Amino acid sequence: MNTFARKNRLLHLFSLSAAVAALLGGTPANAQRNFSGTVETDPEKERQTFKVADGFEVNLFAADPILAKPIQMSFDIKGRLWVACSETYPQVLPGQKANDRILVLEDTDGDGKADKTTVFAEGLLIPTGVEPAGNGAFVVDSTDLVFLEDTNGDGKADKRTVFLSGFGTEDTHHMVHTVRWHFDGRLYFNQSIYIHSHLETPHGPRRLNGSGIWRYHPGNQTLEVFQRGLVNPWGHHHDRHGVSFATDGAGGEGINYVVPRASYMTAVGASRILPGLNPGSPKHCGLELVSGRNFPDDWQGDAITCDFRGHRVCRFKLTREGSGFISTQMPELVVTNHPAFRPIDVRMGMDGALYMADWFNPIIQHGEVDFRDPRRDKTHGRIWRVTAKGRPLAPVEDLTKKSNSELLAMLGDPETPRRHNARRVLVERGKDKVMADLKRFIRDIPADNELLLLDAVWTLQAFDEMDSTLVARLLASSDARFRAAGVRVLAFHEEMKGISNRQWVMKKLGEAVRDPDGLVRLEAVSALGRIGDEQSAWVALGVRSQPMDRWLDYALWLCLQETYPVWLASLDKGQPAGVSAVDFLFALQQVDSPEVAKALTRLVLAGDKIQPESLMPVLAHLTRVGGPEELKTVWAKVPSLPGESQPGLLDGLAAAALEKGRKPAGIEGVDAKVVLATGPSSKTLASRARLAGAWKMANAYQQLTELLKEKGVSDAAGRAALDGLLNLGDPRLKEVVIAGFDGEANAAAKPVWLATLTRLDASAAATRAAGLMAGKNDPATLRAVLGAVLGAKGGEAALVKVMEPGKGEPEAARALMRELREMGGSRPQLEGALRDWGKLKNARAEWGAPEKNALLGKLASADPARGENLYRGAAVRCLACHAISGAGGLVGPDLTSIGASAQPDYLLDSLLTPDKQIKEGYHGLVVSTDDGKVLTGIPVRNSDKELVLRQADSAEVTVQKARIEEQKQSTSLMPAGLVDDLTDQELADLVRFLSELGKQGAYAPSTTPYVRTWEVLEPGPAASQWLAKGMNSAPPAALKWSPAYSRVEGGLPLGGVPVVDGQRILRAAGAPPAGSTFWKTIAPSGQSAPEAKRVAGRYYLVVPAGTAEIKAVWQKP
Amino acid sequence: MLKALICCLVLLPRQGWTPSDGDRVVVLGGALLEQEIRTAHWETEVTRRLPKRAVVWRNLAWSGDTVRGEARAVFGTPNDGFNALVKETLRLKPTVIYFGYGLNESFAGEKGLPEFRKDYERLIQALAPTKARMGFMTVPLMVRVSSLLPDPAKQNRNIQAYNRVIREIASEKGGLLVELENLLDGLNSQEDSPNGMHLTATGYEKTAGRFAKALGLGEDGPWEVAVQPGKAEVVSGPLQTAVDNDKLVVSSPAIPAPGKGLKVRLKGLAAGTWEIRGPAGFAQTVVVEGESPVTVEIPVDAAAYQTVRRLVSDKDMLFFHRWRPQNETYLFGFRKHEQGNNAREIPLFDPLVEEAEKKIAATTGYSAEITWKAKTGAN
């Protein structure tokens, strides 16, 4: 078919979908915008828009109509490309026969273009993964992982075997994907955040809620979780030495270094998680680590992944640091402004070229878009091939025709897919036919060819075999990466024949935890956690003799969590042999289990077992895990501690009582005096007052009311007495609080009374709150009053009740609304009541299609630069919650590439009615606790015992699960009506700015590591004093620093930054990109860059008041 | 009074029944039953033997599920899984419930038995309002299908212990015991079972007869009719007949088993050579000597059975999309408010399931016309 004819046909298909849209009628009128007629569907024209890295070129390998909607690709042992495609996505229509396909594309004449297409399988329901094996392929068919076989050699699947079923389908773009054989001969596959899988294996059921990576052995059918968490882990590959990396299609931390079995963001039930390597990065899909002769040397091992929102294929350089890695973003491999280029998978081919699957659609087809939205393209898809110009390619061969020795020789090839597929053929030939040749081959591996040795060890592993002398050679390598790889093999030794001696394994791991290299130590600790026998933890603790880092800390903690069910049983025997007291104490403190409390208490009581400096953390841990007897020990120890250590411990005891109902044995009925009157009162009185209340001690009511009267709520001890009284639950308190409120002379202290009163009588509090707020517009008062009432159960409802419609002034209502927004969270009822009370209009929330379309019509002439100022400015303050490239608040999703993924109508809708569509991971929770508190935030961690919420100010708060009385999904934390005060033009500017984010142009994500998050010094006496002394000492703690964020292009406008004594003082904040240690300012043109001053190990910029803007870039040493 | 009656109904001995016309059957369990719908060998085998095939069969099995419904919890707590199991079962208003639980639970070994019994009883209690007859399947013992897989002996001891509890429950509750313990006997290759506990298409096919028998449907021998000129007698099979001197018309609302034929015994034909003709070009010459009867076996078209089986599977898949649709998060879950346009599609599967049932009913059935004619020597 000639190109012209095909193009016409494609255009016809597009207009057909437009016609369908018109027929459906219910589709929004604007659904066709940016779509029909404006999207160039000709592949060659699409190709011409690609900006390709220097030295590379892109050619079309295959395109519609031979394939549509590719999801995952993989090369087989004959060099053919298998592609899983789904036109049924996202949801089968009633009456529609799901007929998705697995295609096999072949380039038979070696010209780099597919010239033969075979439909291997059809009738599938949204196959999200494919990986060739044997005479067929493993395919994910919705709930099932099936093996589809061609038993008669006609190229089509004729047999289906379900290996696993019960994978969740709660969101079809989250279903099992990234199915890949790895170097160890195991099949790995990933599932995303909404998936809940319940799989039956002959070893028992295996379950995983939420995201994670599975590791599967189709032979003996063992199945284990290899990693937990990430939002959409849509990419997983390993480096040359077997270390895993993963990408995330919805989390914004770039490349993730996968520590085996570790948890990452969103992991269900995890109390501790690891971060990604590129925080503030856009989302990525697919992952391939570059290998082979076609790519230049400085690309080898680099990670290639797809920013499908930003139409980019990105490159990250991975370098080792400590026990982990640094990932540095490099200029893109391919980037375009073609709106339909959606790269979603990348694979090195057997020829050493890089193949990219292009889903091809102008919109992102997420579930919040109507499943039948005609903009969901069903007919297009491309596979692109990237080659380095003038560099050799590897031959594409049918590996099944090669002899064993030819295949074994291929284990030395530079292309990962060639080594990998050679190993596949050997494994599929079977042990009987291969093992003798493999052993001969191994015998002849030159001593200095460690890469070949490693691949030989992996080949044995794929056969479930292990040769301990080979592993010992790896462990003795002078290159730490081989030692680490050898240790990882030991982690799985029980899967392999050949190791009869567990003692040998433990001995080697004992050596490895003390290895001079961090990566080796990490692999050893991780291996011990997987082996998980009684000795594992004690051996792993040896790692503490060497320097630790973030990854090692985590790995050791994880190892202790994994092993403690085994070693807890032996705690009665006391400190294990060969483990130092310090290490033993450390181990006990890592475990959140009542059993460790007894062992710890024994050590505390033994007196000489714990160094004085270790005692405090041990006692603090006991307050968290101890029962009555252990708490009694803690309480008895308090008087012997230095005064400054006491408040923390006392507060811990109070928390144990309040949150877990645990009190020291024998404390019931003891007079409150015992707590209140002992100890150095000036430092600990507040904590003692709270504790007396928490323990509900005898006569506490009387003594605490006296203390309250004496100190008043302006004093910390007085406030603590009030807290303590609240915990007592005495009905007389209400009168005391009302009297206290009425008689309070200090206006700033009134909200303290109010907060307590709300807990006791919400409507009495609301009436008084209304009185306090009447006629006042100063933000501090309004915020304090609102905070006091809304922080307790029933407060919002009571406040709604007293806001009589029409009784307020618009100005006052607007001021209150502003404060509500500053507080974050969504309170539609209260906002509605406020509007009615202050006679405010909320016309835009009711906007229909005509109004919206009119506004969208202004976009072409709108000014994104003005929009960015609004984004940053006080009127809307988007920046307080939504970061761009990591700069800004964390409460809402990062918007780095929102414009490239979302259409303007979606953006406008999200501004007008934030509840309409909410990004996964950003659904708020409203939690009421049994002591009457109400907390709102985004759940960031959720373990069996604790829920951690990120509140509107980005601060995290931990709630004990046991204390949660009620928990409900809140709507969006983004308040409605945020843009009400903007003019239409301003709103258009803002939408235009958002719609530019991530598109190629002025608002594209930058690969330059600008300093984007700053802290700026606020004026005040302490600040002036510090400056007057020439900043010659470490900044005093009393200084106040506020956050400031750079613009998208990297500069920080200084207009809004406070001037302190004629200058501005700034410092870089936020985590520097990995490996960067300092930053350099860039001079505005024609000026010299402001000087950075080093004070106490940190750099400060002193900028003259006249400077309008600064810009700085992180640097590596 | 009413309550007491319901109680009695649940406890009434109900041994030895099979589903009958008008029954609405719900099947609960794990992956073995869940995957059955892909090929529908078992369901087809069962319904084939129910003369009018007027039974509604709904499979709610879910991989990894237990009597606690824990595979169905989705985003909720484990108890939400149990509630979902009960709610969906009640929605279908079953008159018969078959329980296929115990395999997943059995991996917990002896120590899990008390909890298993308690939770099984809780489930039965929660479904008592249906007043359905209940059948309790024992767990098939695992078989060794690959040397790479673990020796199932240890796990089979666990399964036997759980099966004892299941038998006790069936007896205590007066339910039907569906004995499947030896269902997989003799299967020893991955052609039949990928893992010794689940089945491939051929595995389901091979065990379909045993499954139907375990439900109480008995062996289904070949259909047979004894004919004398002017008179026909059904020896076995759900058949109607019409006969005259040289012709027999046999019809049935059911279909015969694949591979088995219709036996026709002709008695009273005069000695000589006769030509017997039947459907699909069947023709056979028989020689009658004396008064001895002759028997011809008329082959049955296997394609008819396979057609029905595919229709049954299609119906099951339609129902699967109805009760366990993809994208639940956006249809009914916590993101339904975002666009919410597609939940309305799901009930649209109901009429499609109904239609599929009708299609099965219309396709099921058998009729054949058999004629005999003297060739030589007879008169």
Low-pLDDT regions of chain A: 1-36
Per CATH, the superfamily of the largest domain in chain B is SGNH hydrolase
**Count of structural domains of chain B:** 2
What's the β-strand tally of chain B?
14
Q: What coarse outline of chain A follows from CA principal-axis ratios?
A: globular
Q: What separation lies between the terminal Cα atoms of chain B?
A: 73 Å
Helix content of chain A: 25-40%
Low-confidence stretches of chain B: 1-14
Question: How would you describe what is shown here?
Answer:
- The complex is a heterodimer of chains A (1117) and B (379).
- Chain A has 1117 residues and is an alpha+beta fold.
- Chain A is 34% helix and 20% strand.
- Among the domains of chain A are: 1-63 and 307-344 and 353-395, no CATH class; 397-464, no CATH class; 670-730, no CATH class; 1013-1115, no CATH class.
- In chain A, strands 1-23-22-21-20 form a five-stranded antiparallel beta sheet, with no helix packed on it. In chain A, strands 30-29-28-27-31 form a five-stranded antiparallel beta sheet, with no helix packed on it.
- In chain A, helix 8 runs antiparallel to helix 9 and helix 15 (612-625) runs parallel beside helix 17 (646-660).
- Residues 1-36 of chain A have low confidence and may be disordered.
- Chain B folds into two domains: 2-220, SGNH hydrolase (Rossmann fold, 3-Layer(aba) Sandwich), CATH 3.40.50.1110; 221-379, no CATH class.
- Helices cover 35% and strands 21% of the residues of chain B.
